[in-house]
């Protein structure tokens, strides 16, 4: 049967994704429900020249509009001769099962897995779509999708290691993507919305989800749209860093929220964190 108008035939089928990710302790995100649906890229939503960890597209999956966040590949640990004390401490942590230490660490620092862990916990707590834009799971993009993104939008590279280009496209690591509601409405910077945004942030903190990246461009219609830097407990950082330093990490969202309200000139008396100077000192610690 020929493809319907607006589809591009078999290459638009979503690559199979079957297991919850990441494969480490803690919350996980399930794959997108319909991995047999046709995927059509409609347009690029963010400037591709920005130094970001992902590219965000408006897409149609099975005729339904979504935002698709295609995440670049990450290699967190530096080459051996340049590793910091922090990286060496991370690599010394015990790893359960047969997982390689670097794969284990990527479960906690890869922006894709950060989103998976944060959204997995929000979904478990029945807060999906309440405090951050609704997530519908993850999917893997096929080599044909990657070619299409190159030809249509000029997006290449994806931070692949050089040796992967010696492999056929089907043997390379697939691109990973998060499927979310398509929300195009900008946030209205007024006290009523700001109060709700702060309540939402505190709900996330109660779940031990710390976004680490509170700024105006990460909100749409008063909801967070980017959790790619989120630290979600249980997290290896909270296990190896001193308590006073992890307290600084955990409070950073509150400090940044107050700064965002000032920058947006929201006329409100609400304060997320009343001792911002102390937290800034904690965050500046380089131990």
Name the features:
five-stranded antiparallel sheet; globular; single chain; 8 helices; disordered N terminus; two-stranded antiparallel ribbon; 9 strands; 287 residues; alpha+beta
Q: How many helix segments? A: 8
Low-confidence stretches: 1-11
- Adjacency order of strands in the biggest sheet: 1-2-3-5-4
Q: Beta-strand level of the residues, as a percent range? A: 5-15%
The overall pLDDT average reads 85
Residues in helices, as a percent range: 25-40%
Any idea what the shape is? globular
Succession of helices and strands: EEEHHHEHEHEEEEHHH
Distance between the termini: 63 Å
Rounded radius of gyration (Å):
20 Å
Structural class: alpha+beta
Summarize the biggest pleated sheet: 5 strands, antiparallel
Number of separate strands = 9
What does this structure look like?
The structure is a single chain. The chain is α+β, with helices and mostly antiparallel strands and 287 residues long. Helices cover 32% and strands 15% of the residues. It is built from eight helices and nine strands. It has helices at 85-91, 101-109, 111-124, 143-153, 191-206, 236-240, 243-263, 276-283; strands at 39-44, 54-61, 64-71, 135-141, 175-180, 209-210, 219-220, 223-224, 231-232. The strands form three sheets. The protein has a five-stranded antiparallel sheet. A two-stranded antiparallel ribbon has the order 6-9. A two-stranded antiparallel ribbon has the order 7-8. Strand 2 (54-61) and strand 3 form a beta hairpin. The radius of gyration is 20 Å and the shape is globular.
